[in-house]
Amino acid sequence: MSNRSSITEFLLLAFADTRELQLLHFWLFLGIYLAALLGNGLIITAIACHHHLHTPMYFFLLNLSLLDLGTISTTVPKAMANSLLGIRTISYAGCAAQVFLIVFLLGAEYALLTVMAYDRYVAICQPLHYGTLLGSRACVHMAAAAWGSGFLYAVLHTANTFSIPLCQGNALDQFFCEIPQILKLSCSDTYLREVGILILSCFLGFGCFVFIVLSYVQIFRAVLRIPSEQGRHKAFSTCFPHLAVISLFVTTGLFAHLKPSSISSPSLDLVVAVLYSVVPPAVNPLIYSMRNQELKEALRKLIQWTLHNQQ
User: Fold this and answer.
1) Residue 77: Cβ within 10 Å count
2) What CA–CA distance (Å, rounded) separates 254 from 2?
3) Under 8 Å between Cβ of 264 and 54
4) Do 9 and 91 form a contact (C-beta atoms < 8 A)?
5) Which residues lie closer than 8 Å to 98 by C-beta, 6 or more apart?
6) Using CA atoms, how far apart are residues 149 and 146, in angstroms rounded to an integer?
7) CA angle 65, 124, 128 (to 5 degrees)
8) φ, ψ for residue 90 (rounded to 5)?
9) How far apart are CA 109 and CA 252, in angstroms?
10) What is the torsional sign of CA 170, 174, 110, 56?
């Protein structure tokens, strides 16, 4: 019997059993979601409306904000609805859509963060070739490659995951549909095929991570050779936000999927999933705007213009 005919819905992990705590989780997630929508929306609007921000670095940042909006919108609204209504269910098609979108968006984001490391490397280590290596056409191609690789990665994982027979019930120990949780419901060793793909993905991800690390080794060496303190500060201010976002993304993702089974528990899995799927989209706008004077100035003008038009 196929998955589709044997399982029509999945049961997601409930945040709490009492109505009061369910409503608390709803309001907490609503606050985080609105913060992510506001922060990323402001960054997208500021970059789109200010011509002096039409540079490769901000073009990639705009794409990152779009991916963050998509990531948090894939998981949080359904979790809020379940908490508000006091239910746990998600349809089979809805679960497949969640898996596809979360893998697509997170895969594309990791690829984009790798591209952004290359952008910072060229800007600081090869500034004379920056306009040639990162022209508008090259930037569009690199961004499209990041989105495309995420899409292909998601198609592979989703098709493979939902072709595996499931016979261990339909309850998932997570607040959204996550591949490792679905594999726990598999009937036999057929899940090893998906595990093999996950291992291959880890190797590819490690290759991107090595590229990012080597890029930043060269960047820091170049920055430390800059004679003026002001020049070093300006160079570091464009690198540290990207480095902070990568660190948050990689550490939470690695811990979520490579933590020892001996310390695994539903509550810990829940916290870790929130850390890698909910927290980064909400805090990334803050990280990028905190040390970036150009972006802060553009956001200030955008807010002033908005307030002025409302008067």
Assistant:
1) 13
2) 32
3) no
4) yes
5) 74, 75, 78, 90, 176, 177
6) 5
7) 115
8) -145, 135
9) 14
10) positive
Rounded to whole angstroms, the Cα distance separating 54 from 287 reads 20
Separation CA 213–CA 301 (nearest Å):
35
CA-to-CA dists, residue 54 to 34, 49, 75, 131, 245, angstroms: 26, 9, 31, 13, 21
The whole-model pTM stands at 0.88
* Tokens representing residue 181 in the block: 């949780």
97: amino acid identity, one letter: A
Find out whether 154 and 104 touch, Cβ atoms under 8 Å.
Answer: yes
Residue 17 CB partners (closer than 8 Å, separation 6+): none
The rounded distance, in Å, linking the Cα atoms of 92 and 100 is 12
What is the full per-residue pLDDT of the chain (311 aa) written as tens digits? 445 447 889 999 887 778 888 899 999 999 999 999 999 998 999 899 888 888 999 999 999 999 999 999 999 999 999 999 888 899 999 999 999 999 999 999 999 999 999 999 999 999 888 888 999 999 999 999 999 999 999 999 899 888 888 888 889 988 999 888 888 888 766 667 767 777 778 788 889 989 999 999 999 898 888 888 887 887 777 788 888 888 888 887 777 766 666 666 777 778 888 888 898 899 888 888 776 777 878 778 878 777 777 66
Which residue, 9, 37, 5, 1, is CA-closest to 170? Answer: 9
Instruction: Name the DSSP letter for residue 12.
Output: P
DSSP characters over 252-297: HHHHHHHS-GGG--HHHHHHHHHHHHTHHHHHHHHHHHHS-HHHHH
